[in-house]
Amino acid sequence: MDSQCVSILPRVCGVLLVSGSSLPDDTSLEKLLDWFTTVAQTGPSLLEACPCLVDFVSKVAFNYASGSSILSFTLKLTGLIGASEDGFKVLKECSVLKLVFNPQHWQEAGLWEDPCLRIGWIQGLKMILQHSEALSFFAQADLIEPLLQLQTDPSLFVASAANQTLAQVLLLCQSLSSVGHNGSKNRDLEHNSVSMETTQNYSGIITKVSEYLNKSVVLKEISQLPGSQQILRLLAMLLVRVGPPLRDTLLLAVMNSLEELVTTSCSQLTVPLLDVILAANSGLRDDCVPKQRLIRLLWAMLNMKKPDDVMQAAAAVLRSHQSDPALSAHSARVLLLPLDIVTGVSLLDENSTEGELRILITEQLKRKSCISMICVCLSNIPQITLMASDRLPCPQRLIVTAVLLLLRLCCVDSSSSSPGCVEVVRFITGNSKVQKCALEALLVLSKSPGVKMVLVEVFKVLTEYLNSPSSDPSVLQKSYQVVIKWVGVCPDLSCITDQLREGFIQAVRKRACDTRWEARDSTVEFLGHLVEVPSCWTFTEQETEPLDVLLGGRRFTVPLLKEALQDPESYVRASSISALAQTLAPSWQDGTALTQEQEDIVAQLQEVLFQDSEGFARRAAVKYFTAWFSACSSPSSCWLLMQSMPTVLSQGVADLDWEVKLHTLELAELLLDRAFPDPSPSHSYAVMSDQDHRLPIAGQQSDLLSSLKNLVDWGVVSALLCGVVDCDRPVALKACQLLLKLRGIVCPVMDNAADTRVFCQLAGASVLQQVRKIQEIGKDTHVVSEACSEADEEGICASVDPECVGVCEVLRLLDLDEKLSILTQSSDHIYNSPLSLLQDILTAAAASSPPGQDSRQELVMDCY
Predict the structure, then answer these.
(1) How many whole angstroms separate alpha carbon 423 and alpha carbon 401?
(2) What is the pTM of this model?
(3) Fewer Cβ close by (within 10 Å): the C or N end of the chain?
(4) Separation between Cα atoms, residue 565 and residue 568, nearest integer Å
(5) For the chain, which domains are there?
């Protein structure tokens, strides 16, 4: 630990004792505890590093005047100290443990009602329960009783923490008991057995927990409902975390209560009860008695008289992937019943055993609450499709047909009528929640066998949704996703007729001009994604792109996207730029000559970089050029691309948006890698030495010099020098890394070559001033003056130009290694250091409340 921290800590403890409310902010104590935790985990024992803490804990325990936040902090700190066996012994000798963790002590002081104190007590217990001695203390002090009482505390924070601590207690009992039976395996028990008294303590804890759970699970009156819900959540967590035989003990203790609870048919307890049953069921052998009783419980829940509860139970069974095939098949039938009833599509055979449930669900569907039931049905279709084909209630193609009919019924502009439950139509028509669930199900059903047979119907329904003015933007977005998915899995699009194509084109054009920007944004995104769908076959048996089949190709999409560049919404402009990059990428890869339209797009994108007021569009513009350069097989042959680079780099690196600048540097990195495809050394930041290099032949020197001049001409070096002095740390870090990479490639060779100076222009005087600042002002100004005079002789810059620098000299003389080490450090290493925290607490105490004012009356926010 830092010596300054050690010297300041006693003063800080004194400040906390006198005035706990005089803190820099409400997180200071948590930060202090985090620091103590780090010290305990990484260094010597906490008391060796901070011996003053025992005295602090002892004084706070007797000082009722301390604020609740200080008391809570002290309880947690006591637990942290006692987490080590040495610290536990010291606290025990000082008689601090019994006092601090005695709830009656705090009740008598009138402090127990404060949830902040209770949370400190609970978390302190959880921290200390790391070894057998702490568990023995816990048992002998009978702390299990107050801990159990806190399991249903009115404060959710307290109850949740109590649940976690009880799990910690049981896990420690389990581990120590197993050691007692099987021999010692850890440092907690150096002997090969646990004393009889200790074993009895553990057994007593488990017995009390089992009795408490058995008694608390049963719902005696409606006022106990929140408590029963909390106990069921606790029981589910315990059954997941503990292992046999403790899990079996807990399960047997509550089994009768669970069976009684199922018979109450309380809807509010259905989900937590299912969580308990499924948690208990996982991991049990099929032939064991508890497993069979749990399966009977699940069957009982699937035969309840409340349709909503039955649907929830069926969904839970499917999600848990139960090994009982009959149970899974029945659950699938239950979940498909609403879809069968609403659409009239016969998904279930007439001999179905769900006759009574069908009547109940039909009545439920005539009420507005049918929406949630239908959504539960649709959202579980993915689980149904995962079942073995011989377990499915019907072929998946029938489910697709039913979902399509449901989508038609939900569409406001559709003329379809339901052959099933007519009353439900008025509730689901235009309901975006049902529409999105149905479309999500349709996404999954695209993998069904024989999907080509229904592709035309799918396409017609989706076109209806895109044409409907009442379709919500989120529904439109989901519809586009379904189109992409179905087209991607159907390589044969010969069924798409000219009439279907024309209708789809009109729908897309209509949505591209929608008054809602979300709809326009989804449309341009769709146009970009459609290009990436694999090739397909048409009715002429020719391989072609889905974009050509559905929309007639790029002659339709490019003008539409180009027009979207002028959209008033920045999100749409950004999406259109990204979509253009996706659309034009194939032509870049093929090396096709640019059209006038594409040249106009480049001019527009440069205008976006200069004039667009929103960062989204400017980021997309830079990424467009990055994608172009990456896709182009021979960038040097594309004059417009390379001609645009200096403008894009200079403008991008000077942008006010840090992400624009970072994307610009990523483009610069691509150019750097293309200029030096096989850099040496292989590691960008390897230390260079003279013997590591051999004198290259003259041809290699010439190539390297030519590549470096190209980087200067493209504006890469100037962009990196601008970026390395940027105020945004990620930008400066990226630029520094790239300059180090460039230095490692260029400088070793240039040191051995004659007359190979390469000069570059900085973007402005301000950048030059910052470079000089890095060079320790005046120390290396000869770099600039020499560069200007020599460049003058070559006609590169005017003799008075102060912004021309020698590349190799700057790379050598800038302290890039030191800058890299600084940039890789977070600002927290200064502002959030332990020393800074301790100093802040002392400073806040010096500026505490005026004389006469009770500091305890100040508002202290604590989220415990």
Answers:
(1) 20
(2) 0.82
(3) N
(4) 9
(5) 432-535+545-646 (1.25.10.10), 647-677+704-774+802-843 (no CATH)
